[in-house]
Amino acid sequence: MSTPGRLSNAGPGRTSPVITPDGICLDADGALWYADVGGRRCVRVREGGAVLQMVDTDLGCFACMLGGTDGTTLFIVANAWPLPTDMTTELGRTGRVLYVDAPAARAGRP
Fold first, then answer.
1. What is the CATH number of the domain that holds 61?
2. What pLDDT, on the 0 to 100 scale, is given for residue 4?
3. Number of domains into which the chain is organized
């Protein structure tokens, strides 16, 4: 996991070229995990935008969900981020389900 930091330029109507959020989930501490396709990571943030943790991967992260026996496993659906024309080639067939221990359990049930 990476060192905690802060999101910049976060807020309505503001975008950042390095943050491309996709799937999200919430944990019992009220933090939100989001999958960042272009950043090849999953990021945990709290209300206000403070970054609590990051899980870096070598693939684009498309979805994340907390689960497992006690709800503290972060599952990440990841794949190379090819051009649409590459989706049926070997480059488009790199999908994986990754998992890491999370600091807080899931909030509720999916």
1. 2.40.10
2. 45
3. 1
